[in-house]
């Protein structure tokens, strides 16, 4: 998985109707190829609609490092090609960033050069499999050094590439393109045969540059040593980026949206066919051909999707769109089943695992399959999900949250969205969504006697964050009722008092000072009268709802430490860090006995133990907000730990998940 970017928290919320026309950025796959092949052509290649994402800019910068002159002319790029044999040795390593397409395609190009070079990438890309391109390129005579078939990839100078007839074990446009690019430098005909047809942008573009290339079903053949000629390339809108807005419009309750100039290449239109099969009202308007690519305007209208068994034949042409298709399945009626898509485990992340774990955290009934998933649509719950630095997973979860504004969904791991879709947040805001970066929350839940109050106070002080002692909320309202002589039977009056409760907490050493209406009330809250009144007002539904919202209002910059029994499971489900403290009953009884003894109260440990065990059973089995760890909570057993040791563990977790 990609490295953590702790404060990278985002959420989207819809604010109204979804309508109008939308311009999606240029196709990433075509943008990569246009710069690479334009560099190998003779003369100028003018590219309009080039996607200025981090991935595509990495390819552009690498071609510049290889001696190609590429300049901007307004919104266009002008590439002055150097010819097939005109590339120059780079001065240093060639950094692909997070771009898997760049690394695999450029491997085919660099393997054939008469100079040494090295391709590197970020942490995520360096873990992705490159053996699938190393194997055929080595058969062609390339010398590539790589540890465990992952980046960095070191290329030795090529003496002569040889043409091969390669039967790829997988349908992969990146593998096919790498072999075809290397085949340009070989004498004779290089052929690639796939088990299923993958996207064919390389073939289409090579023909446009004047290459002698034949396509026969699943077999593609290229004649080596061609003279490529510069051309004008108009990059259509990326269907992979458009897919997010297709699902958005279909699942939105009031949508009529037109996506302009979308690439509907038959090797890329699987997402359209799948959504139509699910009952999506999705139609193609003004179909046409531009620069050899099929394009159309795509109209999307609100629909009630239904679950389907996704045909395996459509998987290669929809392989990049499955993260958002998982969201469509989660919002559809019935069950959607996907098999034959093991390739999803080898993308920027293991997309099957990342998506299924995230959906499960949001309450979706789904399960992982070895080569796919089974998802039954239903209501989403609040929660914090992790995109693990995979831009497509992160954007998919963000849209799921936007489509269900009644729940609170926060997404971490969004830092690579710019690699493929830098305009994403701008576009969604133009369509009426509110983009926020939520205030981080650390929830610390657990039973009594585990040290959560002390730990929370110390943690809030250490971080300089706000503190919420949720256990004092109901007693504070009860004290307010008594102080202001309110009628405990008047539900409306109590609810208003709960909403307006002027309550704050201040970390004070190992304890929290509780301030009600500006006055410290710690001792008053412990009185028997206050406890009795709290037991009267707590069962009232209107009071509970008002106090739930009052607790949420404590989420203020720069952050909040929330101490309680259901902070991570009910109140702050989308908290980026949830901690559940526990300890064995015997140790908790000892701690409680010590506290009471210091106060002069004489009680036997065995009686305390019996009370603790009975309360634990009641709390963990009650129907409403049972005392259990959240699904994504970090459980810490404090039985044999000091407060400082517990705090150190939590601070370590904070460093990983919440605070830099």
UniProtKB/TrEMBL annotation:
It is an enzyme of class 2 (transferase). Keywords: Amino-acid biosynthesis, Aromatic amino acid biosynthesis, ATP-binding, Cytoplasm, Kinase, Nucleotide-binding, Transferase. Its EC number is 2.5.1.19, 2.7.4.25. The keyword Calcium does not apply. Phosphoenolpyruvate binds at residues 28, 100, 128, 174, 351, 392. Residues 442-654 form the Cytidylate kinase domain. InterPro entries: Cytidylate_kin, Cytidylate_kinase_dom, Enolpyruvate_Tfrase_dom, Enolpyruvate_Tfrase_sf, EPSP_synthase, EPSP_synthase_CS, P-loop_NTPase, RNA3'P_cycl/enolpyr_Trfase_a/b. Pathway: Metabolic intermediate biosynthesis; chorismate biosynthesis; chorismate from D-erythrose 4-phosphate and phosphoenolpyruvate: step 6/7. ATP binds at residues 446-454. The keyword Ribosomal protein does not apply. It catalyses: dCMP + ATP = dCDP + ADP; CMP + ATP = CDP + ADP; 3-phosphoshikimate + phosphoenolpyruvate = 5-O-(1-carboxyvinyl)-3-phosphoshikimate + phosphate. Residues 16-425 form the Enolpyruvate transferase domain. Gene3D superfamilies: Enolpyruvate transferase domain, P-loop containing nucleotide triphosphate hydrolases. 3-phosphoshikimate binds at residues 28-29, 33, 172, 174, 320, 347. Belongs to the EPSP synthase family. PANTHER family: AROM/DEHYDROQUINATE SYNTHASE (PTHR21090), PENTAFUNCTIONAL AROM POLYPEPTIDE (PTHR21090:SF5). Catalyzes the transfer of the enolpyruvyl moiety of phosphoenolpyruvate (PEP) to the 5-hydroxyl of shikimate-3-phosphate (S3P) to produce enolpyruvyl shikimate-3-phosphate and inorganic phosphate. Monomer. HAMAP family: Cytidyl_kinase_type1 (MF_00238), EPSP_synth (MF_00210). This is Multifunctional fusion protein. It comes from Marinicella sediminis. The lineage of its organism: Bacteria, Pseudomonadati, Pseudomonadota, Gammaproteobacteria, Lysobacterales.
